[in-house]
Design brief:
- The chain is mostly helical and 132 residues long.
- It has one domain (5-125).
- It has helices at residues 5-35, 39-44, 49-82, 87-105, 110-125.
- The two termini are 14 Å apart.
- The relative contact order is 0.21.
Length: 132
């Protein structure tokens, strides 16, 4: 019987959805950066050169933050595997990863963030019964 099965499952699902959120952010930021300099966009939206450069910079930053979020999603999967060894340590790391993802990619991280925060709180608050 695995006493930390619920924490394992929540953290694993958070990691998988975090990877999906990171890939989605990379794709969105890449598209934003790629289309920021196009003639059609600047003519249709009446963007100035400064606006176009700002869009390119925002797209680049989105890609960077999404790559970091992708790494955090992979780390959550590793935390899920190791959560039975030291529940307090990996509970704190899971909480930090959940909150950090919100700061990195915002609403893309809502599902993995909530799941990671719940799993982290469960790791810290739940006492596992010992069988003798």
């Amino acid at each position: 019987m695995n006493p930390r099965k619920s924490e394992f499952v929540l953290t694993l699902i958070a990691g998988i959805t975090g990877i999906i959120a990171g890939i989605t952010g990379i794709a969105g930021g890449g598209l934003l950066a790629a289309f920021s300099g196009s003639e059609e966009l600047s003519n249709a939206a009446s963007l100035t050169t400064a606006d176009s450069e700002a869009l390119a910079a925002a797209g680049g930053l989105t890609v960077v933050f999404s790559v970091i979020a992708l790494v955090v999603g992979i780390a959550l999967i590793i935390f899920a595997v190791l959560i039975k060894r030291n529940a307090k340590l990996f509970g704190i790391l899971t909480l930090v990863a959940g909150v950090g993802g919100f700061l990195l990619v915002g609403l893309l991280w809502i599902v993995p963030g909530i799941l990671a925060i719940i799993a982290g709180i469960m790791c810290l608050a739940r006492k596992v019964p010992t069988f003798e």
